[in-house]
Automatic annotation (TrEMBL):
Residues 947-977 have a biased composition (Basic residues). Gene3D superfamilies: 5'-nuclease. This is Cas12f1-like TNB domain-containing protein. It holds the Pfam family Cas12f1-like_TNB. Keywords: DNA-binding, Magnesium, Metal-binding. InterPro entries: Cas12f1-like_TNB, PIN-like_dom_sf, XPG/Rad2. It comes from Linnemannia exigua.
Length: 1312
């Protein structure tokens, strides 16, 4: 301890010496005297507090001490037994150690109890135990004696002092000696000239020299006064008078009379007689006399100490707290051993827990997860970005770009390589002017009846109709699908009553299940009908003919036309793919009423009415009954009362009717056209005869044309669309949901409360779906009962800032009142509306949900986007540029860069920079592929840096259990960011498909193992006899479960639906036989199949996000923030197109669409780039490169470097972008060259091309500015030659050739 506040006092008085790396004695004869206990306090505690081998501790302490200097010039001092003069200090320290032992015992007991109870053990729990153990440590006297004996045997000059080391050092110190100690006591002894104070850790220790002469000069005191100051200011032997510490005592001693003529004891007497000291003594009611300072005077003046008798109350110890040896706390060693035992057990438990987590995660992926256990929210398909300790190289997170500032070293040429060569450009052959074929006399397509004109303004009627509102919103905004994850969690979030929430969830899941089963049954009946119609068997069980029947009755033709309308002239001559995706309801409605009526019959068993559509459905039902696929007894229900079902039939089948009608038209109309094209291709390849061609005509049903073409191609398509066993997504409107929920008696009080009905009468369905819901804002029922959208604070206010961000997508969905909705629509339709200033955000609910029983999706209108801008309903001068705004929506359509930057004005308009500021633009080039999803190269100005490194998350509130504020360093010693270094940077990234596709591969592996699992482990009944719901021509045999029965064996045993051996009836029969097992696997109550499928989709989405974020960070951006206005960024994407059919489908197209939409939504300019020569020429030397054994590895013979194919292509794409931005022209070395050495793509006169070619060959590496000057000079020379030396009035742009003939004419004119 020493004198209180001595070191701060000395520094404050201006004595701040410079630290030295080593103790430097004054002369060769002088010695270094070391107080071991004070200088190596921490090291001694670490060595002797945790070791059982004293020799090892002695050896380590010796290795640290011998660094001080030569053993012949260093004398070491070890504290001995306690002194009488320090009795009170020893007692206080002994009590402190006892308190620390008690606290350590409590902390260790708490740790052991938490470990047994399997509670989480945090860092501060262990830190508390170690802290108290450190405070309870003391260096035992026998250990010190053993160390002195060890050092003496090694030849060191070391002594075990009788009492304190300070006194012996002061008595033996010579005028030229140096003393090394951390105790401030040694500064105040007269005999010690210099004290070297160690600072810093042992590995990087430095020493601060305090010279006695310099210290006395700074303090203005004599040596006698300095010693008296130590006696009076509080030390290990005597306490100071309260409020009279070292700072005040220094001033008082200076005021005393006598100075150098007095000794220390006389100064103490004068000090006690000072008026201020007397006044302070009287205040404290204490007695301070010269006898109070006798012990201190004996030590500092006489340099003597007496040994104390050993007693538990007077524990021994030095001023550093290490020399207490006579009394050893009896429980310290046991506590230390107990702590070590606990840490060993704790480390073993951590290792076992980690192995268990890894095993569980592997089991979840491999298929060992219990089907009855609820899967944890941890996604087993996520890729963990974790370093591999088995690898020696430096770890880099996946998708992290590489940055280097110097070109790589030259590399030897590969043993096997082939250099690319120039192939002359060939103009594509012109199409011959053949006479147009005569169009067949086909009936003109029927024009769709125009919809009602939308009103210019919404009226002010209080009963603002729901249909009118939705029509207006559909006209103004696009419809999107918002995913809200689990249906059950959303319903429980919207409805606080668990029983009500469970009723709602079961009702919706039941509707999905019944609707999907009805749709699947309808598909089966259609397939069975078509197979019996076109491939009839002579007798039950006999083989069916290979060639379909061509002659069918008019009745069957009418049924086929009802199932799928005939091909129109537009569909036969156009693309034929005018049917939207199945399930979105985008169909012409021609077959939807028929399908809907038939689905209602299948669900309810009630025959349709006598209308035209009802008659057609009745005819189809009778035909199915005649074939034996439906029971004839159902026809007797015509005159009976209608069956009452759990769900309203017309509402239940509306969604599946729309899906199925779209599927049928897509399958038969689109399939007939594609199959006819395939037949024509096979005829051209002479695989078929010319008389087998299929002629599309409207004289025959589309299904019949499809069956004929499918038979010719070997039945490559299914006879009928057939859904999988897993329940798909169904769309239900709020009116349909209200009708479903009304049939649940438990929901009547909730619906009454929503409507505000206070009558005691029973609530009817018309009260809900006719009188209340049609006049409410879309989304009211969803908000109250399905999903907690548009959340509010407890006070009813909108969420703001962090609250809104934490709430997620539900906070962006708005449920507004009719008045607000009316004002929004009127604002968009007013005459003075400017779409360029439109800034609205969020979503308006459409009033429909989409669910498969597990996941929930909402259909909503995206308020940020306007259909009026997308379809250009405004004048051109007020339409915003689609490249700079998202008001018209985002798409993955790419426009070639030369069609965007046509002039310097385009550069200034799109990038906001003049031609002189184009060096401040950042570029990112992307080359997409199969083996590598993307190869990227980034270029940034020198004054900007990419965001490469650790991704910092947003700051959050302090975690529970954290210990106060986090300590922040001063910043010294931190590595400077490598991205801030000036100079040219090479930023590139290549992402393998193997890495990006890991979630898909893991899910595929999981599915294969799940399907291959033995069904006996899933508690299946030993024997099952299942009869089909529809009567079949073949008897249904019973099956028994064997040891090898699994989903894979079941699905592989089903009859094929395609090929020459296709048998639809046998396939349906096999499905019905194993319906229980298939339904249990795909649609179990816990939705394991759907949950894991969604997890894999989320994991792949996160992979895309991670990769896209890394790409944007290469140009200083991120997917979590909008592009700043001052940042000028151009992203170029290669426009090469290819398809992949081997193994895993290529992800480049999916990722391209995702990245382009994401980047454009953040404000980035994304353009397309033609990839000609981008993978064959070096971007530095502009020469052809060579190909190694691998197509992905190229070698440049000029630069003598290996290059990644996709990264090099990205670099060339960046050069193309820079060329168009700076010169509005593609770089010359990436232009195609014809056999005459001309550039067909270069839209310049021939003389200008020759001059530009010469400039490129002479100074291709002199910079872009030099080539631009040559280009301008060449243009000027050609212009002057054509006009006879006079400057042309017309610009060069007007003389550009449009076709090959015009180019030849311009060339001839330039040569005249």
């Amino acid at each position: 301890m020493g004198v209180k506040n001595a070191w701060p006092f000395v520094r404050k008085k201006g004595n701040v010496p410079v630290a030295q790396p080593k103790v430097l004695p004054v002369s060769p004869e002088s010695k270094i005297r070391v107080d071991v206990c004070s200088t190596h306090n921490t090291l001694i505690r670490n060595l002797y507090g945790n070791t059982t081998d004293l020799n090892t501790a002695h050896l380590k302490l010796e290795s640290c001490l011998k660094k001080i200097g030569d053993k012949t010039r260093v004398r070491y001092y070890i504290d001995g037994e306690p002194a009488v003069e320090k009795r009170q200090t020893h007692a206080d320290r002994h009590q402190g150690r006892q308190n620390a032992v008690d606290k350590a015992a409590t902390a260790i007991t708490k740790l052991e109890s938490r470990l047994v109870a399997k509670q989480r053990i945090r860092k501060h729990h262990i830190a508390d135990a170690y802290k108290n153990l450190r405070l309870a440590f003391h260096w035992r006297l026998e250990h010190r004696s053993s160390f002195v004996e060890y050092m003496s045997n090694e030849g060191y000059d070391i002594v075990l002092c009788p009492t304190e080391a300070d006194v012996l050092i002061a008595s033996e110190c010579q005028p030229k000696d140096a003393v090394m100690s951390c105790d401030s006591d040694l500064l105040f002894y007269k005999s010690i000239p210099t004290v070297w104070r160690p600072v810093g850790p042992c590995k990087a220790r430095q020493f601060v020299p305090y010279e006695k002469s310099a210290l006395l000069g700074d303090l203005g005191l004599s040596t006698t006064q300095l010693t008296a100051l130590a006696i009076l200011s509080g030390n290990d032997y005597t306490k100071n008078i309260p409020h009279l510490a070292i700072y005040t005592n220094a001033k008082l001693i200076k005021d005393l009379q006598g100075g150098e003529r007095q000794n220390e004891r006389s100064i103490v007497q004068q000090y006690l007689s000072h008026p201020r000291v007397i006044r302070q003594i009287n205040k404290e009611d204490g007695v301070w006399t010269t006898h109070s300072y006798a012990s201190a005077c004996k030590v500092f003046v006489d340099m003597k100490q007496d040994k104390a008798e050993s007693s538990p109350s007077a524990a021994t110890g030095s001023g550093s707290g290490l020399s207490d040896a006579s009394v050893t706390p009896p429980s310290y060693e046991s506590l230390q051993e107990q702590m070590m035992t606990f840490m060993r057990t704790f480390n073993v438990s951590k290792t076992e827990a980690y192995k268990a987590r890894v095993a569980k995660r592997t089991t979840a992926i491999s298929g060992g997860l219990d089907s009855h256990a609820e899967p944890k929210p941890v996604n087993p398909f996520d890729t963990l970005d974790k370093p591999d300790p088995s690898r020696s190289h430096q770890y880099r997170p996946r998708y992290s770009p590489k940055v280097r500032f110097e070109p790589s070293k030259e590399q030897p040429a590969p043993a096997i390589s082939a250099q690319y060569k120039l192939k002359p450009w060939k103009e594509p052959p012109e199409k011959p002017n053949l006479p147009e074929p005569e169009k067949p006399n086909l009936p003109e397509p029927e024009k769709k009846t125009p919809t009602a004109t939308i009103k210019a303004e919404i009226n002010d009627d209080n009963r603002f109709g729901r249909k009118e509102m939705m029509d207006a919103l559909s006209f103004e905004h696009p419809t999107v699908t918002l995913s809200l994850d689990c249906l059950s969690s959303n319903v429980h979030g919207a409805v606080k009553d668990d029983s009500i929430a469970k009723t709602i969830v079961e009702c919706i899941r039941g509707a999905v299940r019944v609707a999907w089963e009805t749709k699947k049954r309808c598909q089966m009946l259609i397939g069975l009908y078509l197979e019996d119609l076109f491939y009839p068997s002579s007798s039950p069980g006999s083989p069916r003919p290979a060639v379909p029947v061509t002659a069918i009755s008019k009745e069957d033709q009418s049924i086929l036309d009802s199932l799928c309308p005939r091909l129109s002239s537009k569909e036969m001559n156009g693309d034929g793919d005018d049917v939207g995706p199945a399930g979105d309801g985008q169909d012409d409605g021609s077959n939807t009423p028929f399908v809907r009526s038939f689905l209602c019959f299948l669900y309810s068993g009630n025959l349709p009415d006598k209308s035209k559509i009802g008659s057609a459905v009745n005819t189809f039902i009778v035909r199915l009954q005649d074939m034996g696929h439906l029971e004839k007894s159902q026809g007797a229900k015509t005159d009976m009362l209608k069956n009452v079902k759990e769900y309203t039939p017309s509402f239940l089948v509306r969604s599946v009717a729309s899906q199925l009608s779209a599927e049928l038209k897509r399958h038969y109309k689109y399939g007939a056209k594609r199959l006819s094209e395939k037949v024509q291709t096979m005829i051209k390849k002479k695989k078929l005869k010319s008389d087998q061609e299929v002629h599309l005509t409207s004289q025959e049903p589309a299904i019949q044309l499809f069956v004929q073409a499918n038979a010719i191609t070997g039945r490559s398509w299914r006879l009928s669309p057939l859904s999988s066993e897993g329940h798909g997504y169904m769309t239900f409107t709020e009116i349909e949901l209200a009708a479903f929920l009304h049939k649940k008696d438990k929901m009547h009080p909730i619906l009454k409360k929503l409507i505000g009905c206070k009558d005691e009468r029973r609530l009817t369905q018309a009260d809900v779906i006719c009188d209340w819901l049609p006049f409410q804002t879309p989304g009211v029922l969803i908000q109250r009962l399905i999903a907690p959208v548009d959340p509010r604070t407890p006070d009813g206010d909108l969420l703001r800032g962090r609250q809104k961000k934490d709430a997620g997508i539900v906070a962006a969905v708005k449920v507004v009142e009719p008045d607000e909705m009316r004002a929004h629509i009127n604002t968009l339709r007013c005459k003075g509306f400017d779409p360029r200033a439109y800034q609205e955000k969020g979503y308006f609910l459409r009033g429909s949900i989409k669910t498969d029983g597990n996941d929930l999706q909402l259909l909503a209108y995206k308020v940020r986007e306007l259909n009026s801008v997308k379809f250009k309903r405004y004048k051109t001068e007020v339409l915003p540029d689609r490249l700079l705004t998202t008001t018209a929506g985002t798409s993955d359509y790419l426009t070639e860069v030369h069609n965007i930057f046509k002039s310097a004005a385009d550069v200034e308009h799109l990038l906001g920079c003049t031609p002189d500021d184009t060096d401040k633009v950042s570029y990112l080039g992307l080359d997409l592929g199969q083996a590598f999803v993307v190869g990227a190269y980034g270029h940034m100005p020198e004054d900007k840096s990419p965001k490469i490194g650790k991704r910092h998350r947003h700051r959050r509130q302090k975690k529970r259990g954290s210990r106060g504020r986090r300590r922040r360093g001063s910043g010294k010693g931190k590595k400077k960011s490598i991205c801030r270094i000036q100079g040219e940077r090479y930023i590139n990234l290549a992402a393998k498909q193997k890495a990006v596709a890991q979630p898909t591969l893991r899910h595929r592996t999981w599915m294969n193992r799940q399907k291959g699992a033995d069904l006996k482990t899933h508690s299946s009944p030993p024997t099952i006899n299942i009869e089909s719901t529809a009567s079949s021509t073949v008897d249904q045999p019973s099956i028994s479960i064997t040891e090898s029965l699994s989903i894979s064996t079941i699905e592989s045993s089903l009859a094929p639906l395609r090929g020459s051996a296709a048998d639809f009836a046998a396939h349906v029969q096999g499905r019905e036989m194993h319906k229980v097992h298939l339904n249990k696997f795909y649609n179990d109550r816990r939705f394991r199949f759907k949950k894991f499928k969604r997890m894999s989709q989320k994991a792949r989405q996160r992979e895309f996000e991670h990769l896209a974020d890394s790409l944007l960070r290469m140009v200083g951006g991120s997917i979590g923030e909008k592009k700043k206005e001052e940042d000028k960024v151009v992203i170029g994407v290669g426009m090469g197109r290819f398809s992949s059919s081997s193994r895993l489908s290529s992800l480049h197209g999916t990722f391209e669409a995702y990245f382009i939409n994401k980047a454009r939504s953040l404000g980035y300019l994304v353009v397309g780039v033609h990839e000609f020569y981008s993978s064959k020429k070096c971007p530095k030397c502009e020469q052809f490169v060579g190909q190694n054994e691998s197509i992905r590895r190229l070698y440049c013979y000029h630069c003598k470097k290996n290059m990644h194919r996709d990264v090099m292509a990205g670099h060339n794409i960046v050069n193309i972008l820079r060329g168009h931005v700076e010169q509005q022209q593609r770089p010359l070395y990436l232009h195609p060259v014809d056999k005459d050495g001309h550039y067909p793509w270069l839209e310049l006169p021939q003389d200008a091309q020759d001059s530009l070619q010469q400039a490129g060959s002479n100074g291709s590496r002199t910079g872009r500015a030099g080539r631009a000057d040559c280009k301008r000079q060449a243009e000027g020379d050609a212009d002057a030659k054509e006009t006879g030396g006079k400057r042309a009035k017309t610009t060069l742009a007007k003389q550009k050739a449009e076709t090959t003939k015009n180019k030849a004419a311009a060339k001839q004119l330039a040569g005249q």
